[in-house]
Amino acid sequence: MAKQKMTVMDFQKYKDEGRKFSYVTAYDYTTASIVDDSDVEVILVGDSLGMIMLGYKGTTAVTMDDMIHHIRPVVQGAPHTFVIGDMPFGSYQVSCEQAMTNAIRMIKETGCDCVKLEGGINMADKIAAIVNAGIPVMGHIGLTPQTATSLGGFKVQGGTPESARKLIEDAKTIEKAGVFSIVLECVPSCVARAMSKEVRVPILGIGAGPDVDCQVLVTQDLLGMYGDFKPKFVKQFAQIRKAMVDGLNAFHEETLNGSFPSPEFSFNKQVDIPPAKE
Ligand SMILES: Nc1nc(=O)c2c([nH]1)NC[C@@H]1CN(c3ccc(C(=O)N[C@@H](CCC(=O)O)C(=O)O)cc3)CN21
Ligand SMILES: CC(C)C(=O)C(=O)O
Ligand SMILES: [Mg+2]
């Protein structure tokens, strides 16, 4: 049976009912259609595509055009899955007008279901502006990769009493600004648990421990496709990279020994080719 596409309202309903859900990334049509066939309810077209699809060192160089180029085929490939468009660095920080213009563009040009942006108290006015334009916004706090340089790198956040309290206040402030859910990345489990109790909207954890409403992972990480990158919070549920390398090597070997293509994979019609003139 085809799965029922989740709505923005369902996020809150699931938290209120204590029903967990899961969410992964996709950046292309084929992967999106595979997630659509699975029970995973939500897809993020993350700006992590800068690293995973484009080979950059981080996410800051990703543009609005890059995001739109990747979100569109994901929406096409996953009609039964809620799709989030990640706002890239520089597309919403400048002003409320800029944030609204780019959020509207992302929705209009891709058909995704909501936008996500990084930041707490400092981004509350931008969040409120986009929500006022009628676009659902997902927040993202804790480790925020777009500003990782000022956080001292890809580091666990909220590790001191003061920074943990600050994170929870960030969550409360963006909840007031109108986010319908919050990604919480790379924090101690107890901080995530406390946050989930102090805010009403669902907390979507990536490296935030078990006591949140939803678990998020990058598909290429959880399927073991991406390579050596393995933060503590990544569990590999499959080894697809190895399966792909094995498949490629089998093709290579059969090419060299001539066993591929056998008649089964060849067009075997006999054609009487007349001799060349002269
Ligand atoms: N493939 C991929 N997966 C991701 O989860 C991901 C990306 N790319 N790119 C964008 C951001 C960057 N992310 C990262 C990257 C590295 C760590 C990391 O190495 N963390 C250390 C923490 C060390 C510490 O503070 O103690 C770890 O060991 O988990 C965490 C999140 C999460 N996002
Ligand atoms: C790690 C997730 C939450 C993200 O923002 C991304 O993939 O870009
Ligand atoms: Mg992101």
From TrEMBL:
Name recorded for this polypeptide: 3-methyl-2-oxobutanoate hydroxymethyltransferase
Entry's localization field: Cytoplasm
Catalytic EC class: transferase
Cofactor: Mg(2+)
Subunit composition and interactions: Homodecamer; pentamer of dimers.
Functional pathway: Cofactor biosynthesis; (R)-pantothenate biosynthesis; (R)-pantoate from 3-methyl-2-oxobutanoate: step 1/2
Its EC number(s): 2.1.2.11
InterPro entries, per database record: Pantoate_hydroxy_MeTrfase, Pyrv/PenolPyrv_kinase-like_dom, Pyrv_kinase-like_dom_sf
Biological process (GO), any one: methylation
Organism annotation: Pyramidobacter porci
Function: Catalyzes the reversible reaction in which hydroxymethyl group from 5,10-methylenetetrahydrofolate is transferred onto alpha-ketoisovalerate to form ketopantoate.
Sites where the protein binds 3-methyl-2-oxobutanoate: D47, S48, D86, K116
Main localization (coarse): cytoplasm
